[in-house]
Amino acid sequence: MRDPAAPSLPAPAVSSLADFHPAPGTMASGEEDGTVEEKENNNKKKTKSTLATIWLTSYNIVMTVGWLVLALAMIRFYVQKGSHRGLYRSIARTLKFFQTFALVEVGHCAIGIVKTSVIVTGVQVCSRLFMVWFITNGIRQVQNEESVILFLVVWTVTEITRYSYYTFSLLNHLPYFIKWARYNLFIILYPLGVVGELFTIYAALPFVRRSGLYSMRLPNKYNVSFDYYYCLIIVMLSYIPCNAHFLSYLVHYIVRHVEQNKKVKAPPIDDTPLHFPHTLQKQHGTEEQHEIFKDIVILDACILVFLCSSIL
Protein backbone atom coordinates (compact mmCIF):
# COMPACT_ATOMS: atom_id res chain seq x y z
CA MET A 1 0.00 0.00 0.00
CA ARG A 2 1.13 3.55 -0.63
CA ASP A 3 1.92 5.71 2.38
CA PRO A 4 -0.82 8.37 2.67
CA ALA A 5 1.75 10.88 3.87
CA ALA A 6 3.95 10.38 0.85
CA PRO A 7 3.78 13.15 -1.74
CA SER A 8 1.68 12.39 -4.74
CA LEU A 9 3.68 11.80 -7.92
CA PRO A 10 2.90 13.85 -11.01
CA ALA A 11 0.97 12.14 -13.76
CA PRO A 12 3.22 10.72 -16.48
CA ALA A 13 3.80 13.07 -19.38
CA VAL A 14 3.39 10.28 -21.89
CA SER A 15 0.08 8.52 -21.86
CA SER A 16 0.68 6.15 -24.73
CA LEU A 17 3.18 5.04 -27.36
CA ALA A 18 1.49 7.39 -29.78
CA ASP A 19 3.24 10.27 -28.03
CA PHE A 20 6.59 8.74 -28.89
CA HIS A 21 5.68 8.05 -32.49
CA PRO A 22 3.85 10.92 -34.20
CA ALA A 23 1.37 10.23 -36.92
CA PRO A 24 2.95 9.40 -40.28
CA GLY A 25 2.06 12.75 -41.89
CA THR A 26 3.10 15.02 -39.01
CA MET A 27 6.85 15.36 -39.77
CA ALA A 28 6.21 15.63 -43.49
CA SER A 29 3.71 18.43 -42.98
CA GLY A 30 6.19 20.30 -40.73
CA GLU A 31 8.90 20.06 -43.36
CA GLU A 32 6.47 21.22 -46.02
CA ASP A 33 5.52 24.23 -43.87
CA GLY A 34 9.20 25.11 -43.47
CA THR A 35 9.79 24.76 -47.19
CA VAL A 36 6.80 26.98 -47.97
CA GLU A 37 8.06 29.66 -45.58
CA GLU A 38 11.53 29.54 -47.13
CA LYS A 39 10.06 29.86 -50.59
CA GLU A 40 7.94 32.82 -49.50
CA ASN A 41 10.98 34.51 -47.94
CA ASN A 42 13.06 33.86 -51.06
CA ASN A 43 10.28 35.26 -53.25
CA LYS A 44 10.08 38.37 -51.10
CA LYS A 45 13.85 38.84 -51.30
CA LYS A 46 13.79 38.36 -55.07
CA THR A 47 10.95 40.87 -55.38
CA LYS A 48 12.81 43.43 -53.28
CA SER A 49 16.01 42.81 -55.24
CA THR A 50 14.18 43.22 -58.55
CA LEU A 51 12.52 46.45 -57.42
CA ALA A 52 15.85 47.78 -56.15
CA THR A 53 17.54 46.93 -59.46
CA ILE A 54 14.76 48.62 -61.45
CA TRP A 55 14.97 51.74 -59.28
CA LEU A 56 18.78 51.92 -59.38
CA THR A 57 18.83 51.42 -63.14
CA SER A 58 16.24 54.15 -63.65
CA TYR A 59 18.05 56.50 -61.26
CA ASN A 60 21.42 56.02 -62.97
CA ILE A 61 19.90 56.49 -66.43
CA VAL A 62 18.28 59.75 -65.33
CA MET A 63 21.52 61.02 -63.78
CA THR A 64 23.56 60.01 -66.84
CA VAL A 65 21.18 61.87 -69.13
CA GLY A 66 21.12 64.86 -66.79
CA TRP A 67 24.89 65.27 -66.77
CA LEU A 68 25.01 64.70 -70.53
CA VAL A 69 22.51 67.54 -70.96
CA LEU A 70 24.73 69.66 -68.72
CA ALA A 71 27.80 68.84 -70.82
CA LEU A 72 26.02 69.66 -74.08
CA ALA A 73 24.77 72.96 -72.63
CA MET A 74 28.30 73.92 -71.62
CA ILE A 75 29.71 73.04 -75.06
CA ARG A 76 26.94 74.90 -76.89
CA PHE A 77 27.40 78.02 -74.74
CA TYR A 78 31.14 78.13 -75.32
CA VAL A 79 30.75 77.56 -79.08
CA GLN A 80 28.17 80.34 -79.37
CA LYS A 81 29.79 82.89 -77.03
CA GLY A 82 33.44 82.02 -77.45
CA SER A 83 34.02 82.74 -73.76
CA HIS A 84 33.35 81.11 -70.39
CA ARG A 85 31.94 84.31 -68.90
CA GLY A 86 28.28 83.74 -68.10
CA LEU A 87 28.57 79.97 -68.61
CA TYR A 88 27.89 79.07 -64.99
CA ARG A 89 24.81 81.24 -64.84
CA SER A 90 23.40 79.56 -67.97
CA ILE A 91 23.64 76.06 -66.48
CA ALA A 92 23.15 76.91 -62.78
CA ARG A 93 19.57 75.64 -62.53
CA THR A 94 20.34 72.28 -64.15
CA LEU A 95 23.50 71.86 -62.08
CA LYS A 96 21.74 72.62 -58.79
CA PHE A 97 18.90 70.22 -59.57
CA PHE A 98 20.98 67.16 -60.47
CA GLN A 99 23.65 67.75 -57.85
CA THR A 100 21.03 68.17 -55.12
CA PHE A 101 19.15 65.11 -56.38
CA ALA A 102 22.32 63.12 -55.65
CA LEU A 103 21.29 63.19 -51.97
CA VAL A 104 19.19 60.16 -52.89
CA GLU A 105 22.45 58.18 -52.99
CA VAL A 106 22.91 58.69 -49.25
CA GLY A 107 19.47 57.14 -48.80
CA HIS A 108 20.50 54.20 -50.99
CA CYS A 109 23.41 53.50 -48.64
CA ALA A 110 21.33 54.02 -45.51
CA ILE A 111 18.65 51.47 -46.45
CA GLY A 112 21.20 49.00 -47.79
CA ILE A 113 20.33 48.70 -51.47
CA VAL A 114 23.84 49.94 -52.27
CA LYS A 115 26.72 48.47 -50.27
CA THR A 116 28.68 51.66 -49.78
CA SER A 117 29.61 53.58 -46.65
CA VAL A 118 26.99 56.16 -45.70
CA ILE A 119 29.71 58.42 -44.29
CA VAL A 120 31.89 58.35 -47.41
CA THR A 121 28.93 58.96 -49.71
CA GLY A 122 27.52 61.66 -47.44
CA VAL A 123 30.82 63.55 -47.31
CA GLN A 124 31.20 63.43 -51.08
CA VAL A 125 27.66 64.61 -51.80
CA CYS A 126 27.69 67.31 -49.11
CA SER A 127 31.03 68.71 -50.29
CA ARG A 128 29.57 69.07 -53.79
CA LEU A 129 26.44 70.74 -52.40
CA PHE A 130 28.61 73.11 -50.38
CA MET A 131 30.44 74.20 -53.52
CA VAL A 132 27.21 74.64 -55.47
CA TRP A 133 24.96 76.35 -52.91
CA PHE A 134 27.34 78.17 -50.53
CA ILE A 135 30.18 79.14 -52.87
CA THR A 136 29.20 79.58 -56.52
CA ASN A 137 25.51 80.25 -55.93
CA GLY A 138 25.94 82.40 -52.83
CA ILE A 139 28.97 84.36 -54.07
CA ARG A 140 28.17 85.41 -57.62
CA GLN A 141 31.43 87.30 -58.05
CA VAL A 142 33.30 83.99 -58.45
CA GLN A 143 31.00 82.50 -61.09
CA ASN A 144 33.19 83.68 -63.96
CA GLU A 145 36.44 82.38 -62.49
CA GLU A 146 38.38 79.86 -64.59
CA SER A 147 38.58 77.57 -61.56
CA VAL A 148 34.78 77.22 -61.58
CA ILE A 149 34.85 76.03 -65.18
CA LEU A 150 37.67 73.64 -64.27
CA PHE A 151 35.78 71.80 -61.54
CA LEU A 152 32.55 71.89 -63.57
CA VAL A 153 34.26 70.10 -66.46
CA VAL A 154 35.82 67.60 -64.06
CA TRP A 155 32.49 66.95 -62.31
CA THR A 156 30.69 66.51 -65.63
CA VAL A 157 33.16 64.01 -67.08
CA THR A 158 33.36 62.13 -63.78
CA GLU A 159 29.60 61.85 -63.32
CA ILE A 160 28.88 60.84 -66.92
CA THR A 161 31.49 58.09 -66.58
CA ARG A 162 30.32 56.98 -63.14
CA TYR A 163 26.58 56.87 -63.80
CA SER A 164 26.96 55.24 -67.22
CA TYR A 165 29.24 52.62 -65.62
CA TYR A 166 26.58 51.81 -63.00
CA THR A 167 23.83 51.76 -65.62
CA PHE A 168 25.56 49.33 -67.97
CA SER A 169 26.72 47.19 -65.04
CA LEU A 170 23.13 46.82 -63.84
CA LEU A 171 22.10 45.92 -67.39
CA ASN A 172 24.93 43.33 -67.55
CA HIS A 173 26.38 44.94 -70.67
CA LEU A 174 29.45 47.00 -69.77
CA PRO A 175 31.44 48.44 -72.71
CA TYR A 176 35.20 48.25 -72.29
CA PHE A 177 35.87 51.97 -72.81
CA ILE A 178 33.47 52.91 -70.00
CA LYS A 179 35.11 50.39 -67.70
CA TRP A 180 38.53 51.72 -68.66
CA ALA A 181 37.47 55.33 -68.07
CA ARG A 182 35.98 54.44 -64.70
CA TYR A 183 39.25 52.97 -63.40
CA ASN A 184 41.79 55.28 -65.07
CA LEU A 185 40.49 58.82 -65.56
CA PHE A 186 40.33 59.53 -61.83
CA ILE A 187 44.15 59.77 -61.73
CA ILE A 188 43.90 62.98 -63.77
CA LEU A 189 40.41 64.20 -62.90
CA TYR A 190 40.61 63.94 -59.12
CA PRO A 191 43.53 66.34 -58.54
CA LEU A 192 42.16 68.71 -61.19
CA GLY A 193 38.81 68.79 -59.40
CA VAL A 194 40.54 69.51 -56.09
CA VAL A 195 42.54 72.34 -57.71
CA GLY A 196 39.38 73.87 -59.18
CA GLU A 197 37.47 73.73 -55.89
CA LEU A 198 40.33 75.11 -53.81
CA PHE A 199 41.02 78.03 -56.14
CA THR A 200 37.30 78.84 -56.28
CA ILE A 201 37.08 79.00 -52.48
CA TYR A 202 40.27 81.08 -52.45
CA ALA A 203 38.76 83.51 -54.98
CA ALA A 204 35.65 83.86 -52.78
CA LEU A 205 37.57 84.86 -49.63
CA PRO A 206 37.97 88.62 -50.36
CA PHE A 207 34.25 89.01 -51.16
CA VAL A 208 33.25 87.11 -48.02
CA ARG A 209 35.56 89.21 -45.85
CA ARG A 210 34.27 92.52 -47.22
CA SER A 211 30.58 91.66 -47.17
CA GLY A 212 30.45 89.51 -44.02
CA LEU A 213 28.39 86.96 -45.95
CA TYR A 214 26.81 84.23 -43.78
CA SER A 215 28.61 85.67 -40.75
CA MET A 216 27.15 86.60 -37.35
CA ARG A 217 28.66 89.42 -35.33
CA LEU A 218 28.26 90.11 -31.65
CA PRO A 219 26.15 91.41 -30.06
CA ASN A 220 23.05 89.57 -31.32
CA LYS A 221 19.99 88.00 -29.73
CA TYR A 222 21.50 84.51 -30.02
CA ASN A 223 24.78 85.59 -28.40
CA VAL A 224 26.66 83.55 -30.99
CA SER A 225 29.50 84.61 -33.25
CA PHE A 226 30.33 82.99 -36.59
CA ASP A 227 32.79 84.11 -39.25
CA TYR A 228 32.27 82.51 -42.65
CA TYR A 229 35.64 83.78 -43.82
CA TYR A 230 37.56 81.66 -41.30
CA CYS A 231 35.15 78.80 -41.88
CA LEU A 232 36.21 78.74 -45.54
CA ILE A 233 39.88 78.71 -44.53
CA ILE A 234 39.20 75.70 -42.27
CA VAL A 235 37.39 73.98 -45.13
CA MET A 236 40.41 74.51 -47.38
CA LEU A 237 42.77 73.11 -44.74
CA SER A 238 40.51 70.08 -44.31
CA TYR A 239 40.99 69.11 -47.95
CA ILE A 240 44.24 67.23 -47.24
CA PRO A 241 42.96 64.80 -44.54
CA CYS A 242 39.55 64.35 -46.18
CA ASN A 243 40.93 63.80 -49.66
CA ALA A 244 43.70 61.58 -48.32
CA HIS A 245 41.13 59.27 -46.70
CA PHE A 246 38.99 59.11 -49.81
CA LEU A 247 41.97 58.62 -52.10
CA SER A 248 43.28 55.79 -49.95
CA TYR A 249 39.96 54.03 -50.32
CA LEU A 250 39.70 54.74 -54.05
CA VAL A 251 43.24 53.78 -54.97
CA HIS A 252 43.12 50.59 -52.93
CA TYR A 253 39.91 49.53 -54.62
CA ILE A 254 41.17 50.22 -58.12
CA VAL A 255 44.55 48.54 -57.57
CA ARG A 256 42.72 45.48 -56.28
CA HIS A 257 40.51 45.53 -59.35
CA VAL A 258 43.54 45.69 -61.67
CA GLU A 259 45.36 42.91 -59.82
CA GLN A 260 42.34 40.63 -60.00
CA ASN A 261 41.97 41.26 -63.72
CA LYS A 262 45.56 40.12 -64.25
CA LYS A 263 44.72 36.68 -62.92
CA VAL A 264 43.44 34.10 -65.38
CA LYS A 265 40.77 32.75 -63.07
CA ALA A 266 40.01 35.90 -61.19
CA PRO A 267 36.69 35.96 -59.29
CA PRO A 268 34.15 38.62 -60.23
CA ILE A 269 34.86 42.02 -58.75
CA ASP A 270 32.61 42.96 -55.87
CA ASP A 271 31.64 46.63 -55.91
CA THR A 272 31.47 46.66 -52.13
CA PRO A 273 33.72 49.43 -50.81
CA LEU A 274 36.99 48.41 -49.21
CA HIS A 275 38.35 49.89 -45.99
CA PHE A 276 41.91 50.97 -46.62
CA PRO A 277 44.24 49.91 -43.79
CA HIS A 278 45.48 52.64 -41.48
CA THR A 279 48.99 51.17 -41.58
CA LEU A 280 51.01 50.23 -44.62
CA GLN A 281 50.72 46.55 -45.37
CA LYS A 282 53.15 44.46 -47.43
CA GLN A 283 50.97 42.99 -50.12
CA HIS A 284 50.93 42.65 -53.88
CA GLY A 285 50.15 45.92 -55.58
CA THR A 286 50.84 48.07 -52.50
CA GLU A 287 53.82 49.93 -54.00
CA GLU A 288 51.87 51.16 -57.03
CA GLN A 289 48.98 52.09 -54.80
CA HIS A 290 51.08 54.17 -52.43
CA GLU A 291 52.95 55.91 -55.25
CA ILE A 292 49.71 57.16 -56.82
CA PHE A 293 48.32 58.08 -53.43
CA LYS A 294 51.49 59.91 -52.36
CA ASP A 295 51.75 61.95 -55.56
CA ILE A 296 48.18 63.22 -55.39
CA VAL A 297 48.39 64.07 -51.67
CA ILE A 298 51.66 65.96 -52.24
CA LEU A 299 49.98 67.92 -55.04
CA ASP A 300 47.08 68.84 -52.76
CA ALA A 301 49.51 69.88 -50.02
CA CYS A 302 51.48 72.12 -52.39
CA ILE A 303 48.30 73.83 -53.54
CA LEU A 304 47.21 74.45 -49.96
CA VAL A 305 50.62 75.84 -48.97
CA PHE A 306 50.49 78.25 -51.91
CA LEU A 307 46.95 79.39 -51.08
CA CYS A 308 47.65 79.79 -47.36
CA SER A 309 50.80 81.81 -48.05
CA SER A 310 48.79 84.06 -50.36
CA ILE A 311 46.11 84.58 -47.69
CA LEU A 312 48.65 85.40 -44.98
UniProtKB/TrEMBL annotation:
Region (Disordered): 1-44
Major location category of this protein: endoplasmic reticulum
Alphabetical UniProt keywords: Endoplasmic reticulum, Fatty acid biosynthesis, Fatty acid metabolism, Lipid biosynthesis, Lipid metabolism, Lyase, Membrane, Transmembrane, Transmembrane helix
Membrane topology: Multi-pass membrane protein
Single Gene Ontology MF annotation: very-long-chain (3R)-3-hydroxyacyl-CoA dehydratase activity
GO biological process: fatty acid elongation; sphingolipid biosynthetic process; very long-chain fatty acid biosynthetic process
GO cellular component terms, semicolon-separated: endoplasmic reticulum membrane
EC number: 4.2.1.134
Pathway: Lipid metabolism; fatty acid biosynthesis
Reaction equation(s) it catalyzes: a very-long-chain (3R)-3-hydroxyacyl-CoA = a very-long-chain (2E)-enoyl-CoA + H2O; (3R)-hydroxyhexadecanoyl-CoA = (2E)-hexadecenoyl-CoA + H2O
Cell compartments where the protein resides: Endoplasmic reticulum membrane; Membrane
Transmembrane segments: 52-75, 185-208, 229-255
Biased composition (Low complexity): 1-18
InterPro entries: Tyr_Pase-like_PTPLA (IPR007482)
Signal peptide stretch: none
Role this protein plays: Catalyzes the third of the four reactions of the long-chain fatty acids elongation cycle. This endoplasmic reticulum-bound enzymatic process, allows the addition of two carbons to the chain of long- and very long-chain fatty acids/VLCFAs per cycle. This enzyme catalyzes the dehydration of the 3-hydroxyacyl-CoA intermediate into trans-2,3-enoyl-CoA, within each cycle of fatty acid elongation. Thereby, it participates to the production of VLCFAs of different chain lengths that are involved in multiple biological processes as precursors of membrane lipids and lipid mediators.
Family the UniProt entry places it in: Belongs to the very long-chain fatty acids dehydratase HACD family.
Protein name, entry field: Very-long-chain (3R)-3-hydroxyacyl-CoA dehydratase
The species this protein was found in: Mastacembelus armatus
